Amino acid sequence: MQKYTNCPVCSSPKISFRYTAGTARQPQEAPKWSVYGCEDCGLVFVNPRPTWDELSDYYPEGWQCYNTYVDDEEEAVKEAKKLNEYRHIPIPVGKRLLDVGCGGGSIIQVFKKLGVEVAGIEPSSSAAAAGRECGVDVFTGTVEEYVAEKGTNEKFDVIL
Question: Percent helix, strand and coil across the chain, each rounded to 5?
């Protein structure tokens, strides 16, 4: 695991522990991921960051993604408009949002319906295909592969 002493985005040393998180993939497992936040840029991130090898148990061969986080997408859109946020994120209308590890793209589908320009990155080919079938732009691969193919000129206002 890679331990951060500075923010991985803005390099600020003003990072602090926020909480310990679990995973929806293995809910029987006790929370073990330390989540930190940057006081300067607002980034919230897992620290230390696990390697792909350390995450492999969460993505076994033949893993089938879940396509939705909500039962009723239209209801989620309606509620998000009322609150002016979705999943605790202020709706960035007219801005670009990238969801890394987007699964079947359900989160970015809702943001797209809220007027946000969205894209996703997903290492699972079946999950990425499911997202594309739902009409969202999903790259199959890792962040590193995305950068190698697209370059570093792409900019996003929000990254999940």
Answer: 25, 25, 50
**Which residues lie closer than 8 Å to 52 by C-beta, 6 or more apart?**
142
Long-range contacts of 130-139 (CB under 8 A, 24+ apart): 130/65, 130/67, 130/103, 130/104, 130/105, 131/102, 131/103, 131/104, 131/105, 132/105, 134/67, 134/104, 134/105, 134/106, 134/109, 135/109, 136/102, 136/105, 136/108, 136/109, 136/112, 138/102, 138/105, 138/108
Q: What is the pLDDT of residues 39-53, one digit of tens each?
A: 998 888 899 988 877
pTM value? 0.71
Summarize pLDDT for 56-86 with one digit per residue, the tens.
Answer: 776 666 555 555 555 678 888 999 999 998 8
Paired sense of beta strands 89-90 and 15-21, if any: unpaired
Amino acid letter, residue 23 = T
